[in-house]
Amino acid sequence: MKTLTEKELELMEILWSNGGMTMRELYEMLPEPRTHFNTVSTFIRRLEEEGFVKHEALGGRLFRYQPAVSKWDYEKREQKSFLGRFFNGSHMDFVRHLVKEEQISKEELEELINLINK
Questions:
Q1: What does the pLDDT look like over 71-97, one tens digit per residue?
Q2: Same domain as 57, residue 99
């Protein structure tokens, strides 16, 4: 499974949030200024070829598109890839980096400790 581009992720976020949609419904959910309709259609076809999206025929040339991969599964895979590329797969090395670079507060660390203790 590949990493989604910014535009692909934007389309997937809409599908993950709204479930099955026609191309027109999906297009209408995009923020202004919108990418051209045909370009969005091309993105969706590519996402379908790559296994991220599936469709069902509603009749004629009308289709309902929906995610074929859950947001949870995609995020989990991306997180694992990120940790592998930058922190040798270690969650601890990642947290250590956040602490060292002062990108995580004491309160957030305490919250993590509380989650671990539960």
A1: 999 999 999 999 999 999 888 888 888
A2: no
54 lies in the same domain as 97: no
With respect to residue 95, please indicate whether it lies within any of the assigned structural domains: yes
Number of domains in the chain: 2
Output the six-digit token pair for 63: 């289709």
User: Can you give the pTM of this predicted structure?
Assistant: 0.80
CA 20 to chain centre: 16
Within 8 A by CB and 6+ apart from 43, the residues are: 7, 8, 11, 35
d(CA 80, CA 100): 21
Lowest mean pLDDT across 8-17, 36-45, 104-113: 104-113
pLDDT at 45 over 90: yes
Return the number of other C-beta atoms located less than 10 Å from residue 53's C-beta.
Answer: 22
